[in-house]
Design a protein that fits this description.
about 30% strand; about 270 residues; alpha+beta; seven-stranded antiparallel sheet; five-stranded mixed beta barrel
């Protein structure tokens, strides 16, 4: 029965992935049209005549507020970070002690600060596409203490150092572990010149994300108008190929699970 359920779930995921691929393809002409008619603002200045229009703004990213995780209370030395989270789950092992495992809360959470490029303010929507790829655990003891956290080395899960809340302890009793949480962070490195080209809607002194433009909203490096169009075409092609290949793999895997289950029943 389990294989059949897994097979059906994989087929559903595959069909949904294919739907997203077809949706992206249908939106591609609209995105190209918007980019072709976008205003290229080489000096990254705000002009009243561009209000409400799609603008392409190249320049150096300047951070005005670092990312801050409101849940853990930790400040991060970056404009963008991602957070993974685990909760302690205990199963009674004997009359007193418990065996503990860590259960993921699911998808990574994105945490962004605030920045500017030229005269334009950038908020989370425009910063989501930046690459947070470097693991970070260099928190000071005073910073952790202020947030009610501590370094936690008792368990090493995959790679990196984890942080646990102060209910973690080092014993195996339920009252010590109950509710314990671990966090792991990745950040965008802030070294170098941080040159980017942003594409969004000029609105009230800021760049606002247009979701129909997809990944082209933020691109590393200073690109001209023609290069942005070429980059968008490349992103669109790669994204469609990935979506349809993934859909085929999910659907194929689901069919295999169902077929195997039927053979076992026969």
């Amino acid at each position: 029965m389990a294989k059949k359920i897994i097979g059906i779930a994989l087929i559903i995921i595959g069909l949904f992935t294919a739907f997203l691929g077809f949706k992206a393809m249908s939106q591609a002409p609209e995105a190209v049209e918007k980019l072709e008619s976008a205003v290229y603002v080489a000096d990254a200045k705000i002009y009243p005549e561009n209000e409400g229009k799609i603008v392409i703004v190249p320049g150096n990213l300047y951070v005005t507020a670092n990312a801050f995780d409101k849940e853990s209370g930790l400040a991060l030395p970056t404009i963008k970070a991602t957070r993974q989270k685990w909760r302690a789950v205990g199963v009674k092992a004997d009359g007193i002690g418990y065996d503990w495992s860590w259960t993921s809360d699911g998808m990574n959470v994105t945490i962004c600060g605030e920045a500017t490029v030229g005269e334009f303010k950038l908020y989370e929507g425009m910063l989501n596409g930046l690459n947070a790829s470097v693991e970070y655990d260099d928190f000071s003891s005073s910073q952790l203490k202020k947030a009610g956290l501590m370094d936690y080395y008792s368990y090493v899960v995959t790679d990196g150092v984890y942080i646990d809340d102060n209910k973690g302890g080092h014993t195996r009793y339920k009252d010590e572990y109950e509710g314990a949480v671990r966090y792991k962070y990745k950040i965008m490195p802030m070294d170098g010149e941080l040159e980017y080209t942003f594409v969004g809607i000029q609105k009230n002194g800021a760049l606002v994300r247009d979701d129909s433009l997809g990944m082209i909203a933020s691109t590393e490096g200073i690109l001209n108008h023609e290069e942005i169009l070429a980059k968008n075409e490349s992103n669109s092609t790669a994204g469609n190929i990935f979506a349809f290949v993934a859909a085929a793999l999910f659907i194929g895997g689901g069919i295999v699970c169902i077929v195997v289950k039927k053979k076992e029943e026969n």
